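Record type: monomer structure entry
Structure origin: computed from sequence
Chain ID: A
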Amino acid sequence: MGGGHGFFWPAKIVYPYSMIISVLNNQIGILAIIIAVIQIPIYGILMTKKPKWTIIIFGIHIVSAIICLNLPTETFSG
């Protein structure tokens, strides 16, 4: 996955919001990188402060990953 060579489906599953932005822009830009860096800490904070939201956060993440995996693209394989 480094340098634009490789298989991107792991990134599409773990960081779906960043990869959706990247697919739409046809490149991994600064906004996608910033979102990827803050995504996991935001998940942690939300799940710690609002434990009942865990299922909702997980559901939104899964739906976003499915959308991301189904977006047509030739730049980001997988």
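Annotation 1: The mean pLDDT is 87.
Annotation 2: The CA atoms of residues 16 and 65 lie 5 Å apart.
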